[in-house]
Amino acid sequence: MLAGGMAIAALLIYLSVMLIAAHVGRRRRGRIDHHTGMRFILWAGAIGPTILLLVLLLTALPMMRPIEAGARDLAIDVSGEQYWWRVRYRPPGGPAVDAANEIRLPAGRPVLFNLSSPDVLHSFWIPGLAGKMDMIPGRTNRLVIRATRPGRYRGACAEFCGRSHALMRFTVVVMEAQAFDRWLVKQAAPSPAALAQSDARALFRDYGCAGCHAIQPDAIGRRSIGPDLGHVGGRGSIAAGVLPNEEAAIAGFIRHPERTKPGIAMPSFDFMPEADARAIAAWLRSLE
Amino acid sequence: MIGKLHARAQQLRATLWTMIVPPSAWAAHFLACYLLAAITCAKLGRTAPVDRTHLIVGGFTLLALLVIAASAFIAWAQRRIEGDPPPHDDSTDEDRLRFLATATLMLAALSAVAVIYVAASALFFEDCR
Predict the structure, then answer these.
(1) pLDDT of A70
(2) Residue B14 has what pLDDT?
(3) Which end of chain A is more exposed for a tag (fewer CB within 10 A), N or C?
């Protein structure tokens, strides 16, 4: 739609220039005297554009004031790690909620992002919502975003951070504020499937998956080394926005993560039988 | 009084140095505003209000505009000096003076606009964020 609009605008500009050129070509020479010509150049070439630019400047400057976020607004800690995003929601007065690789935001409310990194430089970028902000080891950068329209937005790492830099993405889901509140309350409680004993849950522990991936809150593990999988079934994608959240994709990723993401810290589980990988994948999908 | 100033201005000699007075005032104003903002923000922190800085920037702006206006007035008077009819492109002292005066006048206009634009953005900020 944008491209179509730009094409129409370009066509209109082209036609206007051609019309003016044709009009000027028809006029007799010397019809405008030197004095009038100089005056035209002064007004149309200098004074007019100067006033126009000043008006644009004075209109745009108030819009550049930063959006405020106070202590009563939602804060989200995001940590860029090779090659995924650690997310922790800190709602005012509520428990912190861990997540990964997908960020949900309430429409119309300011949200404070605390951006950091434990390893190398990353850059947090949601082109549809805000400018880039670097994530620098040993430092916390603040970014306030107020998303106005519900929808899905793509985010990406915008600073080269290693071999899988281009595969370090995330999705931002902007929800209606009330729906977001309900969603966050649900995230703060463990997924029923995570608490129920099952063969797949046992496989997840026996293969040592829980050594790196916590199933929060309060189901398996504490702070995750890798992405928290507490509610992974509700996310739109896995492996930091690279693979669809489907059983086959998850099973394949468990057995050969390096095929999807070169340089990834997760070891490959190529010795794991396909059936076990599928069972774990199906169980993970059920953690909503 | 204007007439006297006008006559006095026409007697002044124009050199390349007089031509760079307006852009120099612009540069000095630009530097002063940025230095002031940097020092104020370093001392007060990100969120402290900067009301006094606005006043000082306003003072700098007034001073720069006065210098530019004086320079423009002198250039305008020199540009109107009596002499031979146009075109003024001979290698004479009068034509040289007219050329320098015209260039100075245009530079003064540009510098005044630039000073106002810098001041406009400085006056809009309420704190250092």
Answers:
(1) 82
(2) 65
(3) N
